[in-house]
Amino acid sequence: MAKEQPAQAEVNIGMVGHVDHGKTTVVAALTGKRTDTHSEEMKKGISIRLGYANAVFYKCGKCGKYSPVPKCSECGTAGKVSRKVSFVDAPGHETLMATMLSGATLMNGAVLVIAANEPCPQPRTEEHLMALKMSGIKEVVVVQNKVDLVDKQKALENHKQIKNLLKEYGYDNPPIIPTAANFGINIDALVEAIEGTIRSPKFDSAKKPKMFVARSFDINRPGIKPRELRGSVLGGSLIQGELKKGDEIVITPGLNGKKLLTKIIGLRVEEGSLEKARPGGLISIETDLDPSLGKSDEMKGQMVSFAGVLPEPVTTIKLSVEQIKRLITRTVPEIKVNDFVVLTVGTMTVIGTVVKQSKKNEYEFALREPVVIEKNQRVAISKRDGNSWRLAAYGTFN
Ligand code: GDP
Ligand code: ZN
């Protein structure tokens, strides 16, 4: 009999917020482990990428309490599994806004972590909230973290600032959960808020698969025998449909102007291999492509599907553009004709130029590399401002 395959997470939850406010600590408290060691990657100077961490939440059958561990903290009963979720952790460092924006493509909902001991909003707090709004992510839970560092008066003031910020961005009632994450305080309440707020997307196996690639690897050790060589591995999230071992897939836009056709040799999640993958969490696909094609995240930004499902790649796109104009924490550069911009299309980031304005809010962009884009897809537009790329506008492809 076939071995039962490990259960996949059923929802991707973004973990966003200003640097040092406690995202990694909150994820650790919710999962019992850390997401990708971003600081390690930073030290080694390798590319910073999205980290995923799976967590299982439990609900006590006796007193109804939620918990990140099976044993109920109230009555000691072993709880039932409520849901398996995957946290997508986007590093909050200044230059990595593009990573966060790529991540937003994969998020079904988000947890926004805000430290109680600093005035709110801090720049990344606001920018991330703006990105959530622009990406159409409506189901948000706010963590007011580090409450151990402030007195009651300060905590209330900070709570009021958070409420005002949320309202400013059209988020009327997200739950705001006070925590001291590094002491594990109030994490049960956070689990309850997540379970009550962020829904799992509905899965439809009849839909054609679409996957966004967030990373890629060459998994072979140096000196391996040629016949043991394994193909490029792609990691990312399926956003609809299903993929199976043996499926013929198309990777698009591909490399050097050519789509890549390949076969699924193996499918994995963190907990083991799968026969079939569906949306939720990070999946990886072993392909039969030359392993060198996938090394060092070379395939980040690609999309995976079946032949004929996705539109042809393009190097010029027309977008209806909404300029952000104003943020509380900084000025926002305006997008104008002849500007250099960085567009985030799905998990792909490409450099481009604004070639012309065709209508009041409609601009044409020439891109340095091809992208795959579908009708109504949102695109984040960043522009250089001093030393950094700033989120400046959003576009919709139509
Ligand atoms: P990130 O940059 O948002 O991922 O933040 P980290 O999770 O790395 O946390 C930044 C620092 O704040 C670390 O030194 C944590 O130990 C500390 N920290 C996180 N949560 C709390 C908390 O609730 N209370 C206190 N006092 N420190 C915290
Ligand atoms: Zn209980």
In helices, the fraction of residues equals 10-25%
Q: CATH homologous superfamily name of the largest domain?
A: P-loop containing nucleotide triphosphate hydrolases
Poorly predicted runs are: 40-48
Bound molecules: guanosine-5'-diphosphate, zinc ion
Largest sheet: 8 strands, antiparallel
User: How far is it from the N-terminal to the C-terminal residue, by CA?
Assistant: 49 Å
Q: CATH topology of the largest domain, anyone?
A: Rossmann fold
Structural class based on helices, strands and sheet pairing: alpha+beta
The number of helical elements comes to 6
Numbering strands along the chain, what is their spatial order in the largest sheet? 12-11-17-8-9-16-13-14
Descriptive notes:
The chain has 398 residues and is an alpha+beta fold. The chain has three domains: 12-197, P-loop containing nucleotide triphosphate hydrolases (Rossmann fold); 210-305, Beta Barrel (Elongation Factor Tu (Ef-tu), domain 3), CATH 2.40.30; 314-397, Translation factors (Elongation Factor Tu (Ef-tu), domain 3), CATH 2.40.30. It has helices spanning 23-31, 38-44, 97-104, 123-134, 152-168, 187-197; strands spanning 12-17, 51-59, 66-67, 80-89, 109-115, 140-145, 176-178, 210-217, 233-240, 243-244, 248-255, 258-263, 266-269, 272-274, 276-277, 283-286, 303-305, 314-323, 340-345, 348-359, 362-371, 378-385, 388-397. The strands form four sheets. Strands 12-11-17-8-9-16-13-14 form an eight-stranded antiparallel β-sheet, with no helix packed on it. Strands 3-2-4-1-5-6-7 form a seven-stranded mixed β-sheet, with helices on both faces. Mean pLDDT is 90; it is low at 40-48. Zinc ion (ZN) is lined by residues 60, 62-63, 65, 72, 74-75, 77.
